[in-house]
Amino acid sequence: MAVRIRLTKKAKIIILASLMLILAGTGGYLLWRVNQDDTVAPTDSDASGGAGVCCNAAGCVAGYKCDTSKPCSACETAYANAAGVSCGKSNGVTVKCRNGFDCKNSSTHECCPSNPLGTCVKVDDPVAPIGGTCPDSIKACEWPNTIMSNTCTCEQCNGSNGCSGNPPTCTPGGCPDGKVSCGDSTNHDGGSDCVKTSVSCAVYHPDCNNPSNIYRYCKPAPSATNVCDSGAWVTKPTGSYAYCAPIAYSATATDSDGIDQTSIAVKLNSVVRSSITKSNAGTKTTISETLSSATNCLTPGSYTLSMDWKDTKGAASSNCALSTTFTVQPEVLNPDWSLTKGVVEKCVEENTTNPTSQLTYTITIKNTGAGEGTITKIVDSLDSKVLQTYISGISNSGVYANGDITWTLSATDKVFAANQSKVFTYVVTVPKDTFGTYANTVTAYPATGENIIANANIDADCVIEAPDTGIFDSIWAKVLLGVAFIAIGINYSHISKLSRKLYISLNDGYDEQRKKNFEKKVVKR
Length: 525
Prior knowledge:
Layout: H1 9-34, H2 44-47, E1 54-55, E2 64-67, E3 76-77, E4 86-90, E5 93-96, E6 101-105, E7 110-113, E8 118-122, E9 179-185, E10 195-203, E11 212-220, E12 230-235, E13 239-241, E14 247-254, E15 265-268, E16 271-272, E17 277-281, E18 284-292, E19 301-308, E20 321-328, E21 337-348, E22 356-367, E23 373-381, E24 391-392, E25 399-401, E26 404-408, E27 415-416, E28 421-431, E29 436-446, E30 452-460, H3 475-490, H4 492-524
Parallel strand pairs: 13-20
Antiparallel strand pairs: 1-8, 2-8, 3-7, 4-5, 6-7, 9-11, 10-11, 12-14, 14-18, 15-16, 15-19, 17-18, 19-20, 21-22, 22-28, 23-26, 23-27, 23-29, 24-28, 25-26, 29-30
């Protein structure tokens, strides 16, 4: 059942007027409350020393400076979240004055600056502070030897010096027994074993609004640690070695706990060696190896040989490490020599009554070694039957004298590169009157090393035509002799039979004579 209230025109006017008065009153209160300077729930800027707030040695918040050209005596309401002295209660909550303010009236929660110096203004305020111009409106306090991890902000200029000076002395007490200090700071980061203790001290710089507590951090005192004992060279490679010279080393690693064999590492120019020999005998291990030999040569250059190891408890130290340096000289490539001598005969006017034998000699010397070499001279000692008039065509400026042909080499002629050959030649022409065997010897003289010798022998024996006898010099004699031979050939069978009969007849006569002689001997007896 709906209930309806009937209002008169007058009642409606009264109700609307009442609502308007309520709304106007509420809006006026809110406007008044927003514009209040003193409040138990101030804004952050009010609570932290912002613009217009009085300031003293405690300074202002970051971004503001204490301008002493603007004196300030204004007080403010205590704050519920301030850090200073208590100044009564508000709605059951204790309120406090900011640092640098004193409680003037706890009933009204009124706080006034202690020895006010000026008013907080923004750092870009054009009015300069009294006492000079600061290098920076806000300056980090860079104290020498500071032990604090955080920096402070300069809020008050001290003449032209700005923030300056060292912090007051603040040294916390020592660590408990069995522990050692690992540093003092407000927020030390020294590892998991570095623990903050309750031992502390307070530090405050008058130019900065940053009172801090410095704490002592402690960690367990280190116990005696195991170390690796020692090592020593037995055979130490050092100095300079010829290429392919034998190079070996040996060293001993000694430790009272024994040597961890798997930890032994030997390196040659930072390359790990895998062919080392390890001989273990209790607390001592001998490490050795051959680095170079005639069949396994180290490349020429500089070398660093290093080794290190650990004991069986895993300890290592500089005592258990050895190092040495040495060099391998470049390979010396030596020459080697091959000397050959050959001779070829050529008959001139052979089958005549006056032939000659032309003997051409070739001397070849070759450097068969891997390095460059030098030959100073070559001497060919000729057969004693050779006369100077027989010799011709000596190459390479060779000179004949006293039965020898000599080649004296100089400049580039005497230098023989590896695998290089040089040839020297001459000719001996032998007349028929001195045909026969010719033997000679050539000798090469290297700049270093033994002399080299080669021999060459040859028979000079060209064919000489027989002289005329005069019997068959005429053509007719030769013709008659030919006819006679032909006649003998045609009558060969008859001549053969005749000669046979003659032979039989002669034999029969001989037999008959023998019989007669025999009979005579019988009769005489």
